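ENTRY TYPE: paired fold submission
RECORD: A
CONTENT: sequence, then structure tokens
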Amino acid sequence: MNNIVLIGMPGSGKSTVGVLLAKALGYGFLDVDLVIQRQERALLQEILDTRGVDAFLDAEEKAVCSVQCHEHVVAPGGSAVCREKAALHLKSLGPVVYLKVPLEELQQRIQNLSTRGIAMKPGQTLADVMAYRAPLYDKYADLVIDCGGGQTLAQTAQQVLERLRKLDRQS
């Protein structure tokens, strides 16, 4: 596997699971949110507050499409699948793994919804965002990992590794 790409809702554990996977595989770890912040010279929430959701998605698409790496676990923002060009670029990097977490669990995990840098239009709820994005995550994922039921992030990382190895043997 050249790279592994983790997708999913904010709070699904992409960054933490990504670091655990990178350590287990001897890979690098790339958080695309940091690429956006560096390219835009602004924090994610600042971009959303000053430029709006569409401009944020444009900046995210540009950042995602700039990613070129080898032997990395890549964790894009949860909204990366909202732009087809970005989603297809992620698929070109390596297998895409959707960390699927139930809404109730996400709501418990995310305490800072208004300051976390989540691409949400005014008045939208986390449930609205999930309803829009879940079909996109399913569409672009090569592998779906159900992460509900109180599973630890370390257990999720182990499950991802096992499923990827199985997928790799089948191809």
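RECORD: B
CONTENT: sequence, then structure tokens
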Amino acid sequence: MKKYTRKELLSIPNLMGYFRLLMIPVFVYLYLHAETDRGYYAAAAVMGISSITDMFDGLVARKFNMITEFGKFLDPFADKMTHGAILLCLWTRYPYMAVLVVLFVVKEGFMAVMGLVKLREGKKLDGAMWFGKVCTALLFVVMFVPILVPHIPAAAANALIAVCAVVMAATLILYIPVFRKM
């Protein structure tokens, strides 16, 4: 296992990744204890700050040549932990969110296992595909809307969940041949 230097572990983009991880329990607390619209808006603000930080950590890393091997692990790890926590919180209010929780676990589990298999075979992973980015963007919208609009009608929330479920399932199917070709 590679030893990481203090400079690498404490680079600005990695500090932003740690910050995102620290925002997870703050979001969970705010969301699960929200009793008014203001409480949900506070949770949405935390989610928004985390998302902006996610966007900027990559920009800073590329612009200032601060890309690290540890950061290549930390950034997607923080993304998955954040998305997982948000999905679980939303599941407490929207029962059909369970479908997205299951699809998320299956998709991310598949990606992790296949990524490890390909790395052991000496293959280099090229990063996210366009359809994976679309899926992640849609997932973000589907998670953000019910937080920002706490009184969204159940039918509207369920429609968002259904569309996202179809896109997540399609994304998983589209990744299968990508890994076969590697």
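NOTES ON RECORD B: Residues 129 and 178 are 9 Å apart (CA to CA). The chain has a mean pLDDT of 92.
STATUS: closed
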